[in-house]
Design brief:
The chain is of the alpha+beta class. The chain has two domains: 11-118, Nucleic acid-binding proteins (OB fold (Dihydrolipoamide Acetyltransferase, E2P), Beta Barrel), CATH 2.40.50; 126-305, Orthogonal Bundle (Hypothetical protein af1432), CATH 1.10.3210. 43% of the residues lie in helices and 16% in strands. The protein is built from 13 helices and nine strands. It has a five-stranded antiparallel β-sheet with strand order 3-2-1-4-7. A two-stranded antiparallel sheet has the order 5-6. A two-stranded antiparallel ribbon has the order 8-9. Helix 6 packs parallel to helix 8 (200-209), helix 6 crosses helix 11 (234-249) and helix 12 (254-266) packs parallel to helix 13. It starts with 10 loop residues before the first helix and ends in a 26-residue tail after the last helix.
């Protein structure tokens, strides 16, 4: 590479079709995910997800690269200043990284604007989301059920406000868990008149509590990773424990408590997706379907926000098993 530093680009600019293959670039990114894998020839390599506020991309560092050990040592959540050349793999931006230097914590502390550029946020105002979310508590008419919900959020509310809803799949950004759950509550209120067999209080309480275990499952400031308890128990079980603890404390009757717990245990839909059981009550089926709807539409909304005007389709979205047509109708 030449002595002249390449231009410092955002991830959105890196993934633009205007950046041709082989073009030099520099960027400041967070290590969102780092996995040590073994190639078919037995040699180790790093599978990396790097990103900033506007998006992320994957790349690979092989064991014979001089960057392998420094990046491995830096680990997940590290901030790196990288230089490389643009490239793609199977239609996705996957650059060749030539330089990578960890940005020291003191520099991050001295440049708050740098940290802000790295943290993706929910598109809606977090304070407004939180105010509307708390107002949902009072929509629950049943006293002990309402007290159960309030008790859970008295315990986890501050973490819940900031937490992502996933590591990478949907609403995977700061305040994403709040945004996802409130969107579900809005959908719940719109759909309840169509399904009179669903108890409104149980459905809304189940939605508000369904993902609260993620406040324990996930940790990290710049990158999200699973905690020890998240790995050993998972958010479904952790959320069940929160609902049960505060339901008993609020003296919620045994039938409603069991039904509330079942909503939390079954909301993932399928055992291979993390559900402890299949949904087996009207409210549990209702909540599970709304959860699936908003998770998938969250993927759609994020892809549309990050779309480049010059590109017709997004990259493949694993949660949809497809690319997404991002060009507006008539464009």
């Amino acid at each position: 590479m030449s002595d002249t530093p390449p231009p410092l680009l955002t991830v959105r600019e890196l993934k633009s079709p205007e950046l041709h293959a082989g073009a030099p670039f520099a960027a400041v990114v967070v290590v969102k995910k780092l996995q040590i894998k073994t190639a078919s020839n037995g040699n180790p390599f790093l599978s990396l997800d790097l990103g900033d506020r506007g998006g992320s991309f994957s790349c690979t560092l092989f064991g014979d690269s001089p960057l392998f050990d420094p990046v491995k040592t830096a680990g997940e959540s590290a901030v790196l200043r990288i230089e490389g050349r643009a490239d793609s793999f199977q239609g996705r931006f996957s650059p060749k990284i030539l330089k990578a230097v960890a940005v020291p914590e003191e520099q991050l502390a001295a440049e708050p604007g740098l940290v802000d550029s790295l943290v993706e946020l929910a598109p809606e105002d977090a304070n407004e989301l939180w105010a509307e979310f708390q107002a949902c508590f009072d929509l629950i008419v049943h006293d002990e059920l309402r007290m159960t919900v309030r008790g859970v959020f008295d315990e986890v509310g501050e973490v819940f406000r900031r937490a992502p809803a996933a590591v990478s799949m949907h609403h995977a950004y700061r305040h994403g868990l709040l945004e996802h759950t409130l969107h579900m509550a809005r959908a719940c209120r719109a759909l309840l008149p169509l399904y009179p067999q669903v108890d409104p209080d149980l459905a809304l309480a189940g939605i508000l509590l369904h993902d609260t275990g993620k406040t324990i499952e996930y940790e990290g400031t710049l990158a999200t990773r699973r905690s020890r308890r998240g790995i050993l128990q998972g958010h479904v079980v952790l959320g069940y424990q929160l609902a049960r603890k505060h339901g008993i404390k609020a003296r919620l009757d045994a039938d409603r408590l069991e039904r509330l717990e079942h909503i939390v245990l079954s909301h993932q839909g399928e055992p291979e997706w993390g559900a402890a059981v299949y949904a087996a009550t009207p409210e549990a089926v209702f909540v599970s379907m709304i959860d699936n709807l908003d998770a998938k539409m969250g993927m759609v909304q994020r892809a549309l926000r990050q779309a480049d005007a010059a590109t017709e389709f997004s990259e493949r979205l694993p949660g949809l098993s497809s690319v997404l047509l991002t060009r507006p109708i008539g464009a």
